[in-house]
Design a protein that fits this description.
six-stranded mixed β-sheet; 22% strand; alpha/beta; globular; 5 helices
């Protein structure tokens, strides 16, 4: 018998996920790095064929999707996603019930604005402080896919090799 790359358990889990995507009318993909961006685009492509959700929202806490990628590539991907009907929401931190890392759930998301200068308190705007208002938006989705967690384990390198790390803690490469 040929070797199987996926266990029976993993195969069942993928089939269950595909069914949830098929049944959902609204999907939130939280985390717009490579995996989240790819997933949002794939689900939107399924929707175009009538086989998936009607609304796909891609949520990223950074100022732009695909943080750290070349601006030209980001612009290209953003244009493709928007043309496919994906709503892109940036500078929002999502809070929801996470059962495990990379969990799939449904329900309500709280989206909090991250570092929005427009949300500064009057005292901060006048130079009297740095406190910002916390704007929170509540949204409900049939399916929420957590694609966050790509945090590098490079903290031990900061003291001696800090210049080799980017602002997110990833090792810089050519």
């Amino acid at each position: 018998a040929p070797a199987t790359l996926l266990s029976r358990h993993r195969t069942r889990a993928l089939a269950a996920f595909a069914e949830r995507v098929h049944q959902a009318r609204t999907v939130a993909v939280v985390g717009a790095r490579l995996v989240g961006t790819e997933l949002a685009g794939r689900i939107a492509a399924l929707a175009a064929g009538g086989a998936a959700p009607k609304a796909v929202t891609l949520i990223e806490k950074e100022a732009e999707i695909l943080p750290g990628m070349p601006k030209e590539a980001v612009a290209f991907v953003r244009k493709k996603l928007e043309a496919a009907g994906v709503e892109i929401v940036t500078r929002r931190e999502a809070a929801f019930a996470r059962n495990t890392p990379h969990s799939v759930t449904s329900g309500s998301l709280k989206l909090r604005v991250v570092d929005d200068p427009q949300q500064a308190t009057p005292a901060a705007a006048e130079g009297g402080g740095k406190k910002k208002r916390k704007h929170v938006e509540h949204r409900t989705f049939d399916l929420i896919v957590d694609c966050t967690g790509g945090t590098p384990n490079t903290g031990f390198m900061r003291n001696q090799f800090g210049d080799a790390l980017d602002e997110h803690g990833f090792v810089k490469v050519d």
